[in-house]
Amino acid sequence: MIGSKNNGLKLNLKRTFLIGFAFFGILLLWQVYDSWCPTFLTDIFARRMYDMSSAQLKAADPDKILNVQWIVGIIMACDNLAALILLPIFGSLSDKTRTPIGKRMPFILAGTFTAAVAFPFIPLLFHQNNAAGMIAVMVIVLLFMMMYRNPAVALMPDITPKPLRAKANGIINIMGYLGGAFATVLGIFLPLSNYINNPDEARNVWVIEIPFIVASVLMVISAIVLFITIRENELAAKLKEEMELGEQLAAIEDPVDDGAPMTKANKRMLLGILGAEFLWFMADNAIGTYIGNYVIYYLNSASSATMIMTIIGGVASVAGFATAGTIADKIGRKMTVVSGLSLTVAAMVVMCFVKPTGVVTGAQGEFSFPALLFAVWAIKGFGMALVHNCSFPMVVELCSNEKIGRFTGFYYAASMSAQTVTPVLLGLVFKASLVWYALPIYSAALFALSCLVFSIIVKNIKSKKISNAHGLEAIDGD
């Protein structure tokens, strides 16, 4: 049994948490970016198309806000298109890189510091109504985050044996959600809707600037902590025997051989995971991209409610990541992913019936927030934590330690291609339907399809279950 005294594989909890600082920075930036930028773009293009701020347009003709969303979708998709190309490239480059500080660390440091310097200029240029400048800086930030993201994520499987990666992935994802929580809390105290719903002369730039500055500072700190505490080259040498043992205990039917092409069964499994992942990221990114606008322009509620909802979803996600390894031990990684997707489908179906409350609260005539969405977000957060926790380790289980960066690139190529397609596609759906509840319907259908694809195609799993360590047995006290 993995983690037993016979084979000696134990998860080093302290080291895994330290690796999680890489993911802390990633989700911190992504939370700020996804929460603020689509609304920035909606406001800027409302002015270009209708010569009104988005708040004025919402009051005068709310359907026209939906007409703007397809352009917002195109802009939000363009950076993902670049990521689709760059993530596999940076993954393969980092696989082949050899430096005194390691193969991943040069990319992590260069990407983090450049993105952190550029990030606060996004709200500043938006405040100045400079669309071209704002979009150009968005592109720069995303390009350098791509340099950072793949190597940062590949760092965990680099120094974690295959059977322990599901538990390790849960820990680094918890660290990531802590990063996102910083941005979310700021969004509660500095509501974006307070800025958007004010006339231009009353707009306070610090309401939108502070979250970006805080994100940049915390990203730099997280990168410095990672650099100081994780010595890649030393750990690679120290853990060589454990990594080799992990290869022998991989939970796939056909062994991985660097000198031979992938077996047909392993290739089918890889394509099945990536295909299902493409669909669930189409669904999830649609929600992430448009939920801010959905709350402000459809529910007519304060954006701070979105942040509270995000915190509830984050707490549920942490619970999911903390328990996913144990659940996977009992029912297997495949059924853990299927269970997570099924929960998420159920949550999206409930969201289809959510409508504006019509109950006015606040000085600006906003409606109270539908409490049912808090429950929806908790179920979705827990379900998708199960999915993400097990799916990435399943992909890197299909390669040797020498190709982790490349296979991490495959994983993120699938997710980024989905995130390239879905904002544009859903934006066009909004334009054609002129109804905001197209959002949960669209996501529910794609989540259900991904569950079906994953269930049918992913079959290449060892029939005999391999157990992970439990409780203190799984933790190395070194």
Q: Please state the average pLDDT score.
A: 82
Please compute the radius of gyration using only Cα atoms.
22 Å
Structural shape:
globular
Order of helix and strand elements from N to C terminus: HHHHHHHHHHHHHEEHHH
Q: Which topology does CATH recognise?
A: Growth Hormone, Chain: A
Low-confidence regions: 1-6, 462-478
Q: What do we call the CATH homologous superfamily?
A: MFS general substrate transporter like domains
Number of helices: 16
> Strand order of the main beta sheet, please?
1-2
Question: In CATH terms, what is the architecture?
Answer: Up-down Bundle
The N- to C-terminal Cα distance equals: 21 Å
State the domain count: 1
CATH class: Mainly Alpha
State the major sheet. Answer: 2 strands, antiparallel
Number of strands: 2
Structural class given helices, strands, pairing?
A: mainly alpha
Helix content estimate:
over 70%
Taken as a percent bin, the fraction of beta residues is under 5%
Structure description:
This protein is mainly alpha-helical and 478 residues long. It has one domain (13-462): Up-down Bundle (Growth Hormone, Chain: A), CATH 1.20.1250. The protein is built from 16 helices and two strands. Strands 1-2 form a two-stranded antiparallel sheet. The longest helix is centred in the C-terminal third of the chain and has 49 residues, at 303-351. The protein starts with 12 loop residues before the first helix and ends in a 21-residue tail after the last helix.
